[in-house]
Amino acid sequence: MSVDVSLATSADVSVQRRWAWMAQGYGLVVSAVLAYFLLGLVIQVSDSFGNLLAVQMPSLGELVGDQLSQHAYLRPLLWAQIKLVYEWSGGDYYAWFRGLHVAQVGVLIALCVRVMRPAAAMELALVPLSLAVLVGAHTFVPLLREAHPINSYLTVAIACVAAASLAFQARPRWYTDALAVVLFIGATLTVESGILVWVVCAAAYLLGARGLSRSAVAMMTLCLVAYVGIRMLVLDVGTPSLAERASGFGFRQLEPAELVARFEGRAWTFYLYNVLSSLATVLFSEPKGGVWRFVFEATTRNVHPWSLVSVLSSTAATALVAWFLWTRRARLRLWTFDEDDRIVGVFVAVLAANAVISFPYTKNVIMSPAGVFFSLAVFAAARHWFQRAAGTRLLATVVIFAVLTCGWSYRVAGNHYNLRRTAAEERAVWVTVDTWLDRQRIVLAGPEAHALRDALRADALRNHPTPYQLEFAWTRWFDIDW
Predict the structure, then answer these.
(1) For 100, 124, 363, 459, which has the most beta carbons within 10 A of its beta carbon?
(2) Measuring CA to CA, how many Å separate 15 from each of 11, 123, 362?
């Protein structure tokens, strides 16, 4: 009998692996399509060109050292990454930076599929929906459209999902513990939202996941305390002020001077607005960047299809996750959780923490880690729905999943379309790059800087010309800029 049980278990494991590999195959297709559109972009003038100029002359040690004396930001590993890729590229900047971007997107999608771990045909069928929520989200688009020239928030999103994958394993191992600690340190020193790696690991452990040991979580906690202490007390880095940058408020963007004039002396009201807006933008796709675009369009009776579909599809996804949490409330009282509970619970923790660290200003890309975990939470909630409710709630199933599949598919298509539009916009700026340099009061010092400008401009205008742009009447339905 034991032999029969062993054979049955082995067969079950083999079937589950087959579904998992099929899911990874679909993820690879999604990554390949995104890669095609990403390779249509070039290195941007704004941010990317200026940052490459900044890493040209200093040594790696000087760059890292300079970051330790910056105000409001502490990102030494981000600049180290840019410097290393710049040096390794040997002048082939497009291939290296765009290639790294494509690789990062592929890794993120593969890790998301790994966390889902579909083990049956029904679960495999939900993978496209979850990846559509991932790729179609407005918090994901900046991970593609912005580079700088290495997108630090994409790095953090990868680290967070990788940490979740480690935490959801069956048992801890010394090397996975070490990797989790390295992920936390690396992500945190890349950009401030890297502390979400700790949130992922701590939340997963509290919810009963034991892929990481208690020692690993304790070590990460000590590293977090050390980071905060050194940042605030030793380096006195501080946080961004009201005058740091523009931010959305109400129905428009406010410039730094306007923010100071309106909120000086009561900045906490602005920070509270930012936290609440950041929560809402993930759950309802409104506001975007702190600006209540859909509400404004509704009050002026000029609603753009993209705005309407974004709000409806996000609200449907949020309703599904809320239903899941409501049906699992008994488990919360008993503090006993299964895999789906942990995925959704980690999403809730990441959403809250991500919104809190976004208090200085609102920006879609800052909430990208929460957006990524939102897609995983939708997968878990949808899996639970089809296991428990689909048979008895046929009408609700048809309505909810029709809105989800149609709405998020529309958003995925629109995001691909907008990548093509971005490709044209980036090249247009390179045509007048010298005018841009004058406006930014940037002087190209030395032949190396001029050579970099000429190489990047040649890549944008001659070596990698603008890809084909769709020109049809219906494309205006996607014509919206985040």
Answers:
(1) 363
(2) 6, 13, 45
